[in-house]
Design a protein that fits this description.
The protein is mainly beta. It has one domain. The protein is 6% helix and 39% strand. Strands 1, 2, 3, 4, 5 and 6 form a six-stranded antiparallel beta sheet that branches. Strand 13 and strand 14 form a beta hairpin. The longest helix has 16 residues. About 19% of the residues have low confidence.
């Protein structure tokens, strides 16, 4: 799925547009072929209302960063909605157009992450899908518009604005050795290993995981992702198509990791995030 790649205990549905509670990804038992939908509990549906008084809307300034996907190649559209004023929280969105053989869309997803803990913020993960993707009339008619009704109040609540933060910064390297440049010119080094990856969709039932370690100049190496978590029906991950967004104070960053997911129509490429502290 540009699922937040957040860590195991955090952060990626059921029928109809829903607001999901923060929870781990559903664990799907191995089976003979890819599931039509990952089995998961019915999410709680409730009116969209803030859990605390909303702050004044942050300055929007520049538009959200957008990386266009490819419907023909199963690659999601990606939008990065920026950071909060304290440089701690960031938000991003992915959109999957769905199968070319269906009239209805795939899904639209919003993720808001606390980079200090690498977890979803409260009520910060929303996925919307059509009630029946194969219906003659798609309900709701436009998933991105439907997600917008849920996105905007959440971004306001967290004080997130595209005008805050910098990026994207490219991730350079190959194999297990990668790095990205800070505005100071220093480079943050990353060690990246895909575990249990496969090129065969039929062998992806148990899913792949990855290990990510980061070294900031002058600091000890930290483990960002420990490789224990395997995401069912994910074939692998890719830093080469990833990117980094820095918070406005330079203390936190969002590392976006591309991931390849088996779906009934083939393979979908989307994004997840690891929120990290740089200093």
């Amino acid at each position: 799925m540009l699922l937040a790649g957040c860590r195991d205990a955090e952060p990626a549905s059921a029928k109809g547009p829903v607001t999901e509670e923060p929870k781990p990804l559903p664990q799907v038992a191995a089976q003979d072929g890819p599931p039509t939908r990952a089995a998961e509990p019915e999410p709680r549906v409730e009116p969209d209302r803030p859990r605390r008084p909303e702050p004044k809307a942050p300055p929007m300034g520049a538009p959200a960063y957008r990386r266009s996907g490819s419907e023909a190649d199963g690659i999601d559209d990606f939008l990065f909605w920026g950071w909060s004023g304290d440089g701690r929280r960031f938000g991003f969105e992915t959109y999957f157009a769905g199968s070319a053989m269906a009239d209805c869309e795939g899904e639209a997803e919003l993720t808001i992450v606390d980079a200090g803990t690498d977890r979803y913020v409260d009520d910060g993960h929303v996925v919307v899908r059509h009630r029946d993707p194969e219906a003659e009339v798609c309900d709701p008619p436009d998933l991105r518009e439907e997600l917008g009704f849920r996105r905007d109040p959440r971004l306001r609540r967290e004080g997130i604005s595209p005008a805050l933060g910098t990026g994207p910064i490219p991730i350079e390297g190959s194999g297990e050795s990668w790095s990205f440049a800070l505005p100071s010119g220093e480079r943050v080094t990353l060690t990246f290993r895909v575990l249990h990856g496969t090129d065969d969709p039929m062998e992806a039932a148990d899913g792949a995981g990855y290990e990510l370690r980061m070294t900031v100049p002058g600091q000890d190496e930290v483990v960002v992702e420990n490789g224990v978590r395997r995401r069912p029906w994910f074939m692998g991950y890719d830093l080469g198509r990833g990117m980094v967004f820095l918070g406005p104070d330079g203390r936190h960053a969002a590392i976006m990791v591309a991931q390849m997911q088996v779906i009934p129509e083939g393979v979908r490429t989307t994004w997840m995030a690891n929120g990290v502290r740089l200093r």
